[in-house]
Design brief:
This protein has 19 helices and 13 strands. The chain is of the alpha/beta class. About 5% of the residues have low confidence.
Length: about 400
């Protein structure tokens, strides 16, 4: 026989244990306002598929795969550190200095290269005078192609100076192309986070370096980087100035002051945009900022041209494959410099440069026309575009 249960008592206990919320107080989560319909990384890839498939054609599938692979780093050796056996330890692990390796290989095959390029315009290429620009003082070690091993954290020496700086090895190329000579004054217009600034200092040729970045937080990161890799007495010699100002203004305030100017502008940072959701410029909230990038880049390059002395050189670089941020910006800046400022600027041919580092990087062949050089991804290195300009007057 079933036990008798008081229904009214059960209902009262149930009501006490459950708190009913009146309908007018119930709020449904608005997914459209709280969660993006499409992640920024997907929006970036869709944008790249649309534009780069037309621009790169048959190359785009391989570039896309490499862009989505794990990033590969290089170790920029810090010559200011006295940490023992830094290079030896890395070479034991299988690393090689791609700068000295590719340069030595180029010297071995120089005669064959001369015969191959004899039919080209030798007045533009001029590889021989430019050979010293590949300074042996900059050393960047990488693992062999296909090896994506990670570097161990750099060890400090007795003074706390770290032995090497990890960065994408392709980031060193604009510094090598800049051809810094002893006694030169150099402006790094968009310096943070500091990898290229450190590479410039490894040449030991810079008489004075001005490292600038608009972002205050990024400038603080730049300062911390320099403090970790440079001796305190070197920082106190007033050879380095770190500022956080609008680089577009330096063209007027520092006109014709520098022998070399590096303009590594803010861009869509293609690999970061395709892989990382945080701080992604393809977020819908940053649409206007992304659309204004070509204008900002043109203004920065124009300021760099103004700040360069007669006969000086400017290297413009991005880590994007976008023609709107690359060739179009260079063409627009050259046109504005001539028409509005009366400054004549010539684009230098960098095909010799692409040939020299062809063992480590693969430069897109159909874009190596005239003077512009654009490497596409190989061995998991990031994309980088650069163009070298020579100020005539």
């Amino acid at each position: 026989m079933a036990a008798y249960v008081c229904t009214r008592s059960c209902i009262s206990k149930f009501k006490e244990s459950i708190r009913f919320i009146p309908r007018r107080y119930r709020v449904k989560t608005k997914w459209a306002a709280t969660r993006p319909k499409f992640p920024a990384t997907e929006l970036a890839l869709h944008n790249f598929d649309t534009s780069y498939s037309i621009q790169l054609r048959d190359l785009w599938p391989s570039v896309r795969v490499a862009m989505l692979c794990e990033q590969k780093y290089g170790a920029l050796i810090n010559s200011f550190s006295s940490a023992p056996n830094v290079i030896t330890d890395l070479e034991v692990q299988g690393c090689k200095d791609f700068i000295s390796f590719d340069c030595s290989r180029n010297e071995v095959h120089q005669s064959s290269q001369d015969s191959t390029t004899s039919h080209r315009d030798s007045t533009k290429l001029e590889p021989a005078p430019l050979q010293p620009s590949i300074t042996p003082d900059i050393k960047c070690l990488v693992f062999p192609q296909g090896d994506i091993s990670r570097f161990k954290p750099a060890r400090p020496d007795s003074s706390g100076i770290l032995g090497y700086y990890l960065l994408d090895a392709a980031s060193v190329l604009p510094v090598l192309a800049l051809d810094v000579q002893p006694g030169h004054t150099v402006l790094d217009l968009c310096a943070a986070p500091g990898g290229k600034t450190l590479a410039l200092l490894q040449t030991h040729s810079v008489n004075y370096l001005w490292a600038n970045d608009l972002s205050g937080s990024r400038t603080m990161r730049l300062r911390r980087t320099l403090q970790s890799y440079l001796p305190k007495e070197f920082m106190d010699e007033n050879k380095i100035l770190v500022t956080s100002t609008d680089g577009r203004q330096l063209g007027m305030t520092e006109e014709k002051r520098f022998d070399r100017v590096l303009v590594d502008v803010p861009c869509t940072t293609d690999r970061h945009s395709a892989m990382v959701e945080e701080n992604n410029i393809f977020k819908r909230s940053r649409t206007k900022e992304r659309q204004k990038l070509p204008l900002l880049q043109t203004q920065l390059l124009l300021a760099g041209i103004q700040a360069t002395r007669r006969g000086g050189h400017i290297v413009y670089s991005t880590c994007s494959l976008s023609q709107l941020q690359n060739e179009c910006v260079v063409q627009q800046a050259i046109s504005l410099a001539q028409q509005e400022l009366g400054i004549t600027v010539e684009v230098e041919d960098l095909r010799w440069f692409a040939q020299r580092f062809s063992d480590t990087f693969h430069f897109a062949p159909q874009l190596c026309v005239g003077e512009l050089v654009l490497p596409h991804l190989r061995a998991n290195f990031g994309p980088i575009y650069m163009c070298k300009l020579h100020r005539i007057n």
